[in-house]
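Review this today:
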Amino acid sequence: MNTVIFACKQSAGSSQIAAAFFNLMADPAKARAIAAGAQPAERVQPEVLATMNDITVSMTGAKPEQLTADLAKSAQVVVTLGGFADAPTVQGQERVEWPMVEDTAGKSAADVEKIRDTLAALVSGFVESHGWERPPAP
């Protein structure tokens, strides 16, 4: 099973959105995602939870996590968001940068929705490019 870490500074916004979408779109037998950050916040931003809830994506239990070297070593892929450059480097690990993704902190609900929609498209393309799509429901 492949592990993907979506990394940003606080792991309270964009990385949480990306991990939630990934875990919905990817076949759980092939890959899973974790959100992590260098300076994790105490909780996921309320605007993020509300924006995801608006599209019926529950993030119950989502919690910012510390991005440690050991956690980074456990992943096959690290995706950095918004120009976040503090993710530990692991030899041979795939690294992807999505610098165009804005931080959700302090943004209006409308701006968080735009970031959410951008991330949905990026994650969808990423899952498809790796062949990790969830099989159709029977």
Notes: The chain has a mean pLDDT of 94. Helices lie at 14-25, 46-54, 69-73, 109-130.
